[in-house]
Amino acid sequence: MSFSLAEVARVSHDLWPLSGAEDWDAPGLISGDPASRVESILLAVDVVADTVTEAVETGADLLLAHHPLLLRGVTSVAEDQYKGALLARLIRSGCGLLAAHTNADTVVDGVSDIIAQRLGLTEVRPISTGSAPGTGIGRVGRLPEPVTLGTLARALAGLVPPTATGIRVAGGYQDLVQTVALCGGAGDSLLREPLVRSADVYITSDLRHHPASESREQSIVAGVGPALIDVSHWASEWLWLDTAAAQLRERLPGIRVAVSDLRTDPWDFVVTQ
Ligand SMILES: [Zn+2]
Q1: H-type helices in 184-264, by residue range?
Q2: Judging by beta carbons within 10 Å of its beta carbon (0-12, 13-18, 19+), is residue 152 exposed, middle or buried?
Q3: How far is the CA of 236 from the centre of ligand 1 (A)?
Q4: Fewer Cβ within 10 Å of end Cβ, the chain: N or C?
Q5: Residue of higher predicted confidence among 1 and 38
């Protein structure tokens, strides 16, 4: 059983409409002949040497990645640069490349929605509402009962695949939390959102010193504000791939869809003091 790459792209854009992407984003088909046949798809968060090798060696006809390989002004795909080298390898192997990025963050059953579901949150809604009901960036919801911040962090650690840097937390281990705001991937741009400020805890990735410190300091002055949980960017988004794979299998019957288990988080080890 096979579908054309154009048909697969149409299904992808139906599941994750391009209109839901942020203005700066570049999701969609990156390389490949729309008329080529697709029998096998590999899903991954990142287009890196390891995942491209996996796609080529497993005979995938399409690598569907969360992060677009070409995002900002590209003037060369020469093969002495890694993006050119990866693209050339995919093209020579007859493997197309398609990205579903912020358009897959905002939808129902998208990246943040899946984290909310896996944490068992109820009354889930977007932090910043999109154009269609239930869609938008980030999610906020409630745990069935209050738990300590430490318990929530440990539950999250058991949910996401392991990474060298683990999970960092700002807040008291024994503090009780129930309202949880979250954003898969880098979510520091949402730190000032009212639904984040009023949550007991905000889970996201890539929190740098200043946004994290400023959020905590503002919480002291205001007497209200979220604890922070910083989880691996790759790990937080990887959870979505299983759902995306199931959706593709349903829409494209007979096609082989696999999820890459390779850890593409860039950090390899930490030294604790
Ligand atoms: Zn991301």
Answers
A1: 194-197, 209-222, 233-251
A2: buried
A3: 8
A4: C
A5: 38
Ligand 1 center to residue 194 CA distance, Å?
23
| Spacing, Cα 41 to ligand 1 middle (Å) | 20
Across the chain, what does the average pLDDT equal?
A: 96
Q: How far is the CA of 141 from the centre of ligand 1 (A)?
A: 21
Helix (H) or strand (E) holding 140, with range, is strand 136-148
Half-sphere exposure of 65 (CA within 13 A, CB side): 28
pLDDT digit string, tens, across residues 89-118: 999 999 999 999 999 999 999 999 999 999
- Give the tokens for residue 193: 């959102």
Angle at 149 between CA 262 and CA 216, to 5 degrees: 95
* Cα–Cα nearest to 85, from 114, 56, 42, 115: 56
Residue 220 φ then ψ, to 5°: -65, -45
* Centroid of chain to Cα 216: 25
* CA gap 128, 138 in Å, rounded: 7
pLDDT by residue (tens digit) across 2-58? 899 999 999 999 999 999 999 999 999 999 999 999 999 999 999 999 999 999 999
What's the burial of 231, exposed, middle or buried (CB within 10 Å: 0-12/13-18/19+)? buried
Burial 182-217 (b: 16+ CB within 10 A, else e): bbbbebbebbebebbbebbbbbbbebeeebbeebee
What's the 173 CA to ligand 1 centre distance in angstroms? 27
